[in-house]
Amino acid sequence: ATPTALMVGTGRGAQLGILIKGPEVLESTRRVDTIVLDKTGTVTTGEMTVHEVVAAEGESVDDVRRLAAALESASEHPIGRAIAAAHPSTEQPLPRVEEFTNREGLGVQGVVEGHAVVVGRPSLLADWAQHLPPALADAVEQAQAAGRTAVAVGWDGRARGVIVVGDTVKPTSAEAIARLRDLGLTPVLLTGDNEAAAQHVAAQVGIETVVADVLPADKVAEVQRLQAAGKVVAMVGDGVNDAAALAQADLGLAMGTGTDVAIEASDLTLVRGDLLVAVDAIRLSRRTLATIK
Ligand code: ADP
Ligand code: MG
């Protein structure tokens, strides 16, 4: 490959809204046959909304909402932002949080109003022996059956509530995935979210292979597994939890709307955060290389 042709490709990329880390990056895209897509913020908008707040018997919906919102106000996760935004802060300022810890891909914890509060995947609470009472377990099941994400809220050793959040697929995702298939790529949906929510999104955009309930450390293992099976893997992601997998992939594409860590770990950045631009990126590199050969 001549450096000049690759530089031209890089310049054309910038016009299309693709920031390319170095001209040599384009060379690896040609052989890519598998494209791993993160769900939240990549295939979906990542703009989650709160659909429902459920309190366990004897607990108040208000306490569940307030303590969770306080804790999540320190979180950058789309779920955290939705829960914090759902609190009417004009009526009542949120309480202070001490000892805040973000458990990437699991949830958040900290001390609020003197209580040790945990907000996250139901399994995070189960790890702490905070088992969901039947009413909350039902709420989780119903939410997941509807393709939504149920977040459990607990404090002082007991599960107290469930907050149901949901997201929508980006308007261009289905078309982009169809075009990626036309280019000969097999799409795989990879997410830390629950299986039902993942299947719900996969069905809307035409993806058949779904890997759900994945912990952040296992996202990179999934990319390695595909590579060990002989696949040349592109990965598209936006989150802190995607960074290691983006770096491991043969080609890492970050959503420009995502976190800085994901952008730093990637070879390409899609400025507008639109999957159709991922199609442009793969086409561009194939064309660039074709003119050099
Ligand atoms: P994705 O792979 O879809 O981007 P993540 O790995 O970031 O998802 O998160 C996986 C799951 O962990 C979420 O579906 C949620 O249940 C839980 N989780 C992660 N961060 C938070 C948070 N800040 N608040 C509540 N739950 C969270
Ligand atoms: Mg994400």
TrEMBL record:
Cell location: Cell membrane
Domain of life: Bacteria
Family of this protein: Belongs to the cation transport ATPase (P-type) (TC 3.A.3) family. Type IB subfamily.
Protein name (database record): Cation-transporting P-type ATPase B
Lineage summary: Bacteria, Bacillati, Actinomycetota, Actinomycetes, Propionibacteriales
